[in-house]
Automatic annotation (TrEMBL):
Lineage start: Bacteria, Bacillati, Chloroflexota, Candidatus Thermofontia, Candidatus Thermofonsia Clade 3
Transmembrane portions of the chain: 6-24, 117-140, 146-168, 198-218
The protein's name in its UniProt record: Zinc metallopeptidase
InterPro entries hit by this protein: Zn_peptidase_2
Pfam families, per the entry: Zn_peptidase_2
Length: 226
């Protein structure tokens, strides 16, 4: 049953190319604006402090190793900033404001963020049990087992799709906060938007990959039935 399946490539290659392009786009856009200092002179750390104060957030700031590894952790209420995001550049300020956009979503109980948090345990379980059960179902020609597997993939796809409004909304909030707090000029904001749009593209690619994987497995099920 582990034969070369051309159909797999039809499903897998387009989202893979999109993911590679998105990766290139985010790396190159970040690199470009990481070299442009902000006119206000603020760095990433200061941006975090200003936005935490202005929005009345009770959020801690920590350091995280790696490149573009920045994230907001809703459980510990901390924003983890990578080394490059702590510098003075349009790219750092954009990334930091985006993470604080997530903190603001958390404070306001933004629906998609709550939903994403709620399905995380099921997604983690479904992510590794799903493929195993599906393949087992294929081998045993058991439709119920295959369905359980498909539900596992479905959860992963749901997670990737719910991530989209969460990420787009965080970037929208980020740009609004940078503007209202005069951290960036209008021209600098256009650069910040490019950085955040490129980052959003990686999430679009991840959702496309999750969806096409799900479709591929559903197609395999249909084939098995024939
Ligand atoms: Zn984000």
């Amino acid at each position: 049953m582990f034969y070369f399946d051309p159909l797999y490539f039809v499903f897998a290659v387009p989202p893979l190319l999109l993911a590679m392009w998105a990766q290139w786009k985010v790396q190159s856009t970040f690199a470009k604006y990481a070299r442009v200092p902000t006119r206000s002179g603020v760095n990433g750390i200061q941006t975090a402090q200003v936005l935490i104060n202005r929005n009345g957030l009770s959020v801690g700031v920590t350091s995280v190793p790696g490149h573009l590894t920045d994230h907001y952790d809703p459980r510990s209420k901390t924003v983890a900033l990578s080394q490059s995001s702590q510098q003075n550049s349009i790219a750092s300020v954009a990334v930091v404001a985006h993470e604080l956009g997530h903190a603001l979503q958390d404070k306001e109980n933004y629906g998609p963020l709550k939903l994403r948090g709620a399905i995380v345990p099921a997604v983690q379980l479904g992510g590794w049990v799903g493929p195993i059960l599906f393949i087992l179902g294929l081998m045993l020609a058991s439709e119920p087992l295959m369905w359980v597997g498909v539900i596992g993939f479905g959860l992963a796809a749901l997670f990737a799709i719910v991530t989209l409004p969460v990420e787009f909304d965080a970037s929208r909030r980020a740009l609004a906060m940078l503007q209202t707090n005069y951290l960036l000029t209008d021209q600098e904001l256009r650069g910040a938007k490019q950085v955040l749009d490129a980052a959003a593209l990686t999430y679009v690619a991840a959702a496309a990959q999750a969806l096409t994987t799900l479709l591929y497995y559903i197609t395999l099920m249909g084939r098995q039935r024939d």
